[in-house]
Amino acid sequence: MMERHKGRTLHKGYTTGSCATAAARIAALMILRQQIIEQISLTTSAGVTLFLSVEHPLIEGQQATAAICTDGGDDIDATHDMLIYARVSLNNSGVITIDGGEGIGRITRAGLGLYVGTAAIHKTSRQMIELAVREVIGSGRGADIVIFAPEGEKRACKTYNVHLGIEGGISIIGASDSVNPMSEESWKRALAIELETKRAQGLEQIILVPSNDEECLIAEHLTACGHHAVVMSNFVGYMLQECVRLGFRHVVLVGYAGKLVKIAAGIFHTHSHVADCGREVLIANLALLGAPFELLYAVEQCATTEAAIDLINKRGWQNVFELIAKKICQRIDEMLRFSHNRPVCDAILFSLDNPMLGANRPVNDILADFSRRFPADVTA
């Protein structure tokens, strides 16, 4: 996939999760057809069709193996140009299982949204893989799927996985089907276009989420507001400025606390390469609430912000998330203080397991404002 930016052609790749999904689908198809497949088309959620070459296809009765080569596009990382394999074995159980084999890391610490000891295959990727195979084999059959990457352990040495508690290989991730090219400006512009579309539909209120992953949170907890959601990625400040430009009157930030806590420290570009301070923000606000030093030290020792959040919940200091949500809104107000028509801002924080952690004010009041403050906004 290609796109242009400032006269330069940018190449858009696809995620390891998409590679694993395509490989698993091919393997299942080969079993049912008892025929080698050397190319497959994969339509992404953005409606783009990829034509992917199949590497090392093998069929052995009710088991088949296939591989897809990763492509990081212009956003090349440690997993670029490596083979992701899927081995599928059909059975009559009606159940689909997914595990990791050679070169796929294992979770060794809590806080990553997966159980300790399981393969480092992100829950979104697991859903993608299961859906792709289920569409092929139907509801009556079952399948045991193993994702593996022979180069994975070596490649993982070039990643941050071991510091996160993922050992023995790479992780399979993919909240979306494709890897966006490196041009931040073109990416930001694409996000702003979605805001413009919502505003053209007559909406005056908007929900900003870091990624498509948070859509499930809105569906579960903010059911009447799903059509208000727009992805902001890491570009919090930019998207807020666009909200002002377009005349939105109410903005709600919804997402996993591990990402949004950075805003409470005045950080409006939340990529870890720009700022990686989630635990520090938690520690500072816990200290303001009088938390004991032992807890502050334990949070500092956590491998990830999500692990720290889990620890805080277990120790009963959940009120820190309400404080952080309020500070997020204060920081936004400060950033937009020279605006003549500054929007009302709210923040709702969640954990990776979906429970709501806290908000700057009662969530029922926030939801009521969506139906009361601007009535025309709801029926648009």
From TrEMBL:
The keyword ATP-binding does not apply. The keyword Methyltransferase applies. It catalyses: Co-precorrin-5B + S-adenosyl-L-methionine = Co-precorrin-6A + S-adenosyl-L-homocysteine. Pathway: Cofactor biosynthesis; adenosylcobalamin biosynthesis; cob(II)yrinate a,c-diamide from sirohydrochlorin (anaerobic route): step 6/10. InterPro entries: CbiD, CbiD_sf. Its EC number is 2.1.1.195. SUPFAM superfamilies: CbiD-like. Pfam families: CbiD. It comes from the Bacteria. One of its GO terms (biological process) is anaerobic cobalamin biosynthetic process. Keywords: Cobalamin biosynthesis, Methyltransferase, S-adenosyl-L-methionine, Transferase. Gene3D superfamilies: CbiD-like (3.30.2110.10). It is an enzyme of class 2 (transferase). One of its GO terms (molecular function) is cobalt-precorrin-5B C1-methyltransferase activity. Belongs to the CbiD family. PANTHER family: COBALT-PRECORRIN-5B C(1)-METHYLTRANSFERASE. NCBIfam families: cbiD. This is Cobalt-precorrin-5B C(1)-methyltransferase. It comes from Hafnia alvei. The gene is cbiD.
